Amino acid sequence: MSTTVSVTPLAPAGTWAADPVHSNVSFEIGYAGVNTFRGAFKEFTAVLAGDSLEGTAAVASVDVKDDHLNDHLQTPDFFDAERFPEIAFTATELAKAEDGTLSGTGELTIKGVTRPITLTGRIADAPATDPFGRERLGVRLEATIDRNEYGVSWNAPNQSGGNYLADEVALFAELALVRQEG
Amino acid sequence: MKVLAVSGSLRAGSHNTRLLEEAAAAAPDGVEVELFDPARMAALPLYDQDLDDEVAPASVRELREAWAGADAILFATPEYNGSIPGGLKNAIDWASRPKLDPALRNQTVAVIGASTGQFGAMWAQQDLKKVLGIAGARAVGDPVPVARAHEGFPEQLHEQLRGVLQRLVEATELEAVAA
């Protein structure tokens, strides 16, 4: 069944910025061929205006529950934080279907490499007003990338065959957007 | 630009030390290759976290200063029992600490190697690259396996070594731009 893409705006006019405490920017990657491993970025920004969403994530804030692995992720084997401290993301032409699903295209920059990505997701029907009078809107976006295209290629062979880490990584932005005043 | 040349072999007549001397002779303009005296590696105690407190042993401090202070490091390794020599691994273990500011973190490195066998220390070079990467270094280029080193070096080696040094130059220049 096809859905109709609405020409109505994604959100009421204005600028909507992610509340970092109630938002999450995370990733999932296949691990040892039999599991899914998750990680997140603790520091990030995201701003929605019109049909565009722009965001950044600080590589130094990557969080995977193990300090040794956090350290290794900072090195040139993975994100190379010294040269490329920030991951950047732009989504343009985001469109909302009648059932609330979102689709769009965007560009993602990791380790200095910018590649186009395809996005899917959901957006709340309408903003809600929280107990403190702020207007809030929920957005969830996801995309899947091949990390090798960005030069994040570290791997090791499993003893039973295949590689320790998958090539595909799923990225998620679950954003609690708050309407900015002025 | 100063490239520090670290031999994994302590032997006076080492093929790998000779390989680094060959690299020094092949250096492009503006690149100075300085041999890290193997005796300084031999002077290191075995890695022991109990020794690695606020004031590390003098030999360790000197190693960390020399490795962190170089613009890039070229390692030449022999192959002992299918991997890198224990002494070289020990030096890297010291240089991968202290945790907050390890000497090898983000240091640009390349790996070459010679052996008297037919594979030119290929396994050791692969292991060395892996170990350096986990220690936080920026390992660039492909291994250069020099086989049957006791029979002399092949003619094309000069160009290959020049290429490795050129790759180090490019990688450190990139770093300067990014910084």
Report on the architecture of this protein.
Chain A is mostly beta strands. In chain A, 4% of the residues lie in helices and 52% in strands. Chain A has a single domain, classed as Lipocalin. Chain A has an eight-stranded antiparallel β-barrel. The longest helix of chain A has 8 residues, at 67-74. With 179 residues, chain B is an alpha/beta fold. Chain B has a single domain (2-178), classed as Flavodoxin domain (Rossmann fold, 3-Layer(aba) Sandwich), CATH 3.40.50. Chain B contains six helices and six strands, in the order E-H-E-H-H-E-H-E-H-E-E-H. Chain B has helices spanning 15-25, 38-42, 58-69, 86-95, 122-134, 157-178; strands at 2-7, 32-36, 72-77, 108-114, 138-139, 145-146. In chain B, strands 1, 2, 3, 4, 5 and 6 form a six-stranded parallel beta sheet that branches. In chain B, strand 4 (108-114), helix 5 and strand 5 (138-139) form a beta-alpha-beta unit. Chain A binds chain B through residues 71-72, 74-77, 80, 82-84, 112, 154, and chain B through 99, 105-106, 133-134, 136-139, 174-175, 178-179.
List keywords for this structure.
heterodimer; A: mainly beta; Lipocalin; 8-stranded antiparallel beta barrel; 1 helix; elongated; B: 179 residues; alpha/beta
Main sheet characteristics of chain A: 8 strands, antiparallel, barrel
Name given to the CATH homologous superfamily of chain B: Flavodoxin domain
Percent of residues in β-strands of chain B: 15-25%
Number of domains of chain A: 1
Oligomer: heterodimer
Number of strands of chain B: 6
Instruction: Write the H/E string of chain A, N to C.
Output: EEEEEEHEEEEEE
Q: What's the layout of helices and strands?
A:
The complex is a heterodimer of chains A (182) and B (179).
Chain A: E1 15-18, E2 24-31, E3 35-41, E4 44-49, E5 52-58, E6 62-63, H1 67-74, E7 86-96, E8 101-110, E9 113-123, E10 128-129, E11 135-146, E12 165-179
Chain B: E1 2-7, H1 15-25, E2 32-36, H2 38-42, H3 58-69, E3 72-77, H4 86-95, E4 108-114, H5 122-134, E5 138-139, E6 145-146, H6 157-178
